[in-house]
Design brief:
heterodimer, A: 254 residues, 6-stranded mixed beta sheet, B: 4-stranded mixed beta sheet, two-stranded antiparallel sheet, 6 strands
Chain lengths: 254, 444
């Protein structure tokens, strides 16, 4: 446990969907105040990993624990996690202001931070507009606000950055960092390597349901045996092209 | 959080279009009832003795509520299903559950929000009954409120069916289809009474909501009927809870669902037997005369009435709706048996005995019994009281005056305008206000 709070521990998670093993002994930790990005090719199991953590996908082996205590049931998970699906859409009938109102976000963060979060996501001018009239990026910002304002110890975000332009991404990255600095651990799946590089403290590379490498950027470079200035994309390609990468790291370092 | 769900439900156009369509259905039923009541009233203008037959509860309120029943049966499941299934379609279902922290709370919120929307047409029926009073009709608050209020129980049940279907479905269309299928099953049970192809469903009548709704529509407040609606609604919500528990998988999920179905069957079966029913009609016209009720209540020990008549027999319908219904109001603990319904069960009488006993009513008080073949209320109750050895009570009862009324000219035009235009338009205007979008401010 860090000074900010307990650690989320995923121990040898294995899951099967439609007869196929979609997670294979995945081990990973997310400390309080830390941002961990999960990257990997399409179908690697990134979204499945988040769904397994919140209990949507049944585990055939392994366990999800927080602070050494194994989580059981919905109540346990509701206490520790907030989750935002990559395909989530806010209800189109509701005005943005209604979705940002304190009673809807059940915020555990102070009102000043909440106001700042709203302003930084550019939601102030949209409060009277129904979400059905928003652009995709704006709708995503509304949902992101709700997740970050939940103040839950661990926030699981599936592809939170995919719809933002580079300028918005800078803001969002800063907001994710601020959320982490308030003590929440963030586990995010990211498709864009550059986003993961910019946002995450640690990065886990998932392929065919297995973590083939995890660590800081420097640690990944070392593992991939690439230059110290290599980008995450180069690391990714190097690790994926290793012939026995599936067996290289069944238990990722935390 | 309930406010958000209310905003979602009331901010949707479908809610208001459904309410307007329901208002049209209710309005049409009201207009037909008014016209029929007027025509019949015109025929008794010169015969005041027949006026007592003119009961606005049966002649106006009940037919108007027929449209409401149909509207609630159709829109209740749709709006109930949509309230929860939309979360699944928007991929926010798991997030909503994690934020709510409890499947019970999520189901309860969705159900309450949907029920608010589903109940909107009840106000249309109330407005039209109010209009009947404005044009000079007679309306008694108590009996009308019971009839209207029972439809809130009906709405609560069908909304919970929609929520339960949504809990197991992947999206709105799947949930709506499943919920409407459940409604169709209750319609099939109702239809089985007079449709030989569905005769095998007759025994399931105790699972049809209309069985329990009819007593309210006649001005009887029945605890058993309230209990059945509450038990079924609670059971449906328990099924919805089981469906929402995404963290339960395989056998545990199946176990939770089976357990919830068992709760539904058990609570509805137990609560429908609750004794206690009150006649809230004007002049207590559904009840036996007060002196007779007093004598019946003074009988110590159990009373049993065995009716050897088949469901299809019109005499049985008459006895059930008149003598038995009135006896139950006086003595809710009365045990009524219908041996022809028990055919195929171990307690069924032998075939030769069935033929001999058919058409007979046997009344039992303790070890004494009396038999009659009459379907007259006075004959049946008299035979029962005769078993106690008491002298025959006074059968006189306050006369229900009846309220014939002819609606014509401007009043009829007003009723037509309100039923077909005014009330439906009211919902459309409300919908416009609730769903109106605010133009976006341009930001630089």
């Amino acid at each position: 446990m860090s000074a900010l709070g307990p650690t989320l521990e995923l121990g040898d998670l294995s899951a099967v969907r439609a007869g196929a093993r979609v997670l294979d002994r995945v081990s990973l930790t997310v400390a309080a105040g830390e941002i961990v990005a999960v990257i990997g090719p399409n179908g690697a199991g990134k979204t499945t990993l988040l769904e397994a953590i919140i209990g949507v996908i049944p585990l055939v082996a392994g366990q999800v624990s927080v602070g050494g205590r194994r989580l059981h049931g919905l109540g346990d998970r509701a206490r520790w996690f907030d989750y935002l699906s990559g395909e989530a859409e806010p209800p189109s009938e509701v005005r943005v202001g209604d979705l940002l109102a304190p009673e809807f976000v059940r915020e555990r963060i102070d009102p000043i931070s909440l106001r700042s979060l709203k302003a930084r996501l550019g939601l102030d001018p949209l409060t009277r507009v129904r979400t059905g009239a928003l652009s995709r990026g704006e709708r995503r910002r509304v949902l992101l606000f709700q997740a970050l304002a939940s103040g839950k110890p661990f926030i699981l975000l599936d592809e939170p950055t995919g719809v933002f332009d580079p300028l918005q991404l800078l803001d969002v990255t800063a907001l994710l960092r601020e959320t982490a600095s308030r003590g929440s651990g963030l586990l995010i799946t990211v498709h864009q390597m550059s986003d993961a590089e910019a946002i995450a403290d640690r990065i886990a590379l998932l392929d065919r349901g297995r973590i083939i490498a995890a660590g800081t950027l420097a640690e990944l470079r070392e593992r991939a045996a690439v230059s110290t200035t290599a980008s995450l994309q180069e690391i990714f390609l190097a690790l994926l092209s290793k012939p026995n990468h599936a067996n290289a790291e069944s238990h990722a370092p935390s | 959080m309930l406010r958000r769900d209310l905003v979602v439900v009331l901010g949707a156009w479908i809610t208001w279009i459904a309410a307007a369509a329901a208002a049209l259905l209710i309005g049409h039923g009201f207009v037909l009832a008014v016209d029929l009541y007027s025509a019949a009233s015109r025929s008794v203008e010169a015969h005041t003795l027949l006026a007592g037959e003119f009961d606005p509860l049966l002649g106006i309120v009940r037919p108007t509520l027929g449209g409401l029943t149909l509207a609630l049966s159709l829109f209740g499941p749709i709006i109930g299903a949509r309230a929860l299934a939309m979360e699944k379609e928007r991929r926010t279902f798991h997030t909503a559950l994690l934020r709510t922290g409890s499947a019970w709370r999520l189901v309860g919120r969705k159900w309450l929000a949907a029920l608010t929307a589903v109940s909107l047409p009840v106000s249309a029926a109330a407005i039209l009954v109010g209009l009947w009073r404005i044009v000079g009709g007679h309306v008694v608050m108590g009996e009308t409120a019971i009839a209207l209020g029972s439809h809130l129980l009906y709405a609560a049940l069908f909304t919970s069916v929609g929520v339960a279907a949504a809990a197991f479905a992947r999206g709105v269309s799947q949930a709506t289809t499943a919920a409407l299928l459940a409604v169709a099953i209750t319609w099939a049970i109702d239809a089985s009474d007079g449709f030989s192809a569905l005769a095998w469903l007759v025994g399931a009548a105790t699972w049809s909501p209309t069985t329990y709704l009819s007593s309210f529509e006649q001005g009887t407040l029945s605890l058993g009927s309230i209990g059945w609606f509450l038990g079924m609604t609670a059971g449906a919500l328990a099924i919805a809870w089981a469906g929402c528990r995404f963290d339960l998988h395989g056998v545990r999920r199946l176990g939770a669902t089976v357990g919830a179905i068992a709760i539904l069957v058990a609570t509805a079966s137990i609560l429908r037997r609750l004794p206690g029913a009150w006649d809230v009609t004007e002049a207590r016209r559904r009840s036996l005369p007060p002196a007779v009720v007093h004598e019946l209540r003074a009988i110590e020990g159990p009373i049993q009435v065995v009716v050897n008549l088949d469901r299809e027999d019109s005499r049985r319908r008459l006895i059930e709706s008149d003598a038995i219904a009135k006896l139950r109001l006086a003595r809710p603990d009365i045990d009524v048996r219908f041996p022809p319904d028990e055919l195929g069960t171990p307690s069924a009488p032998a075939e030769d005995q069935r033929d001999d006993q058919y058409g007979r009513l046997t009344m039992r008080v303790g070890a004494r019994s009396a038999v009659t073949t009459s379907n007259s209320r006075r004959e049946i109750v008299g035979a029962l009281l005769g078993l106690t050895g008491h002298p025959s009570p006074d059968w006189s009862q306050a006369q229900y005056p009846g309220y014939p009324l002819v609606i014509a000219g401007g009043k009829r035009t007003l009723i037509l305008a309100a039923s077909y235009v005014g009330v439906p338009l009211l919902f459309l205007v409300a919908g416009l206000a609730m769903t109106r979008n605010t133009p976006r401010r341009r930001t630089t």
